[in-house]
Amino acid sequence: MQRYQVYLFCSIPQMGGDCIAPPPIWGYLIDMKKKSGGIDVFLLSLQSQMRLVSDMKRYIFFSFLFVLTGVLRAEYMDHRNRHVDSLECVLQSGSTLSDEELIAIYKDLMWGYMQTNGEKTREYAEKALEMSRRHKDWVYSECDALRILGINAYGMNDYERALEYYMEALNVAERMHGQYKESSVDDVMSSLYGSIGNLYNMQDQVHLAIEYYQKALPLFEKHGWVESATILYNNVAELYNSMGNNEMAERNWNRALETAEASGDEGMIALPHKGLGCKYTAAGRYDDAEPHLTAAYSYYSKNKDEENDAYIEIITAMGRVRLNKFGDVAGALQYVQEAVSRLDEEVGAEIVAGVYNLCCEIAMDRKQWRKAQEYAQRAIDADGKETYDDLGTYVWLAQIYSELGEKEKTKQTVVHIYNSMEHFATAHYQQGISEMEVVYEAEKKQAEIERLEKKREWLTTVIVLLGVIVTVILIMIMLLYHIWKQRRHNAVVQAQLQGEIAERVRISRDLHDRLGGLLTAIKLQEPEGTRTAQLTDEAIQEMRNVAHHLLPDSLRRYGLETALREYCTTLRIVQFTMTGSYTSMEKEDVIYCIVYELINNALKHAHAQHIMVEMLQGEESLAVRVSDDGCGFSPSDEQPGQGLRNVRERVGSLQGKIDIVSQTGKGTEILVEIPRTKN
Of 267, 334, 372, 456, which residue is 20 to 30 A from 32 by alpha carbon distance? Predict the structure, then answer.
């Protein structure tokens, strides 16, 4: 089976001070961690231990990268080593560091050592991972550490462990949704998909590689990352081509061409043209191949030194078209001679085999059978091991032996072709079955994970709901208890008020009947006009006023307004006003007692010159404002058991409100508001 180089382009954003590194090449990639912001990188993976098949963008990038590395390597490495050394000194100094400071140092160290010391890279990545897991919201750091551990395992050729880290990083990356920008999360996810695809590609597990490459594709398309999509389509096309699935290979190369043209990048556009041109040439579709080869040649011929492998592929395909479509042996020979002149140790084995196959074809066309045999053998020996594409060369070799009259070699070659076809078919089938089993098991495991996740979410929802219900019940119980306690307190206060009112009635009657009768008897015994008779008359009048105002009869007959007006009239410094139209209401005797208490407090304690009592009648409530110009007090200094405590309890029993505005030396204003309807 022919092996193809597959590469993945991915945009790596700056997140949390670090960027996610691309997958390794030959163990580790050049450190892509840059403090200046995001960077676009090529993610490359080798197929089993094979050479790099040429392609336009890869060689432009790596030629530039190697030159840049050669110029800056010493300075950068020195700077980096000083950086990691200084960070390790901080860790060894014994300084007290916060978790945020430690995780930042661990992450810098795991990135800083990635090229030079795999053991330390793993050590600091494991520390970063452990610390990240202690902080559930440090999702990015956890994903970053897992990714580095995957790269480290990849570099050690421990593909199984690398896959475990990558898969765990994918699960962690799912938790990044909602914490980071959608484009940043998708970039991390697509990069991980690419890393896993590369890993499977390294192990010749083509089906799995395609599956994970295709998972990255919707993310590229969603965000308009056309260059990444172009290379992804090209990757998938190469893999389908290696499987012999011509239809899917052609479809993906055409998609790559569409996205490449949208990018406007000449190198990107040349890439699928090269794939389609070489594909059609190999299939003998020379009319279809020509326009693609011409378009690819236009780019690669201008960049032949940087894109040597790709250029050799193109001119080899063009030579085959000249030979087989036009019968132009001289033109084909010109192309193949240039291709042979450009072969060196860096050129991939498949490309070398392709060049010698064309040499073999030309020699066969010219009836130069010994040269054809030599070129065929060179093509077979190019990669050091037999591949599926070598079968075509063996067919030519059988024909060559037949022309040379070597019947035994012809027979042996035909038998070899038959056995090889059976072997490759069986191996391909078994590999496909094996990979499908892996896919099935992975999907089964994922389904089980999703089922457990849904169950966990359901249990969490039930627990939260039960917690809310229990909390609501407790709040309701506390509220009902508070209401019951308040009502009980109000009932006690109202009972006390009723007792006080009954006591007022009794005292009023006793004063009128007993003390009044006694004073009247004394008056009758004294001659009129004497000082004793005059004082007795004043005592009788004062006694009647006190008895009357304790609970005036006018309150029962005419209502609260009349009773308060009469009471205020008897006091020289008290003025009464009424706002609104008076309407009687329940508990007027209690309200009278409240206002009576407020007026008496002002008379006794405020030393006021004027007291204003204002009654305000509303539709839903009755308000009484008592204000004076006395000495005032600070409401915050009011102590329980003092004068206003009884007033507050009485107002509370009526479910009313009391507001006190007072300041020492500036008088007092008390507003009592009683609702008309009881709750």
Answer: 267
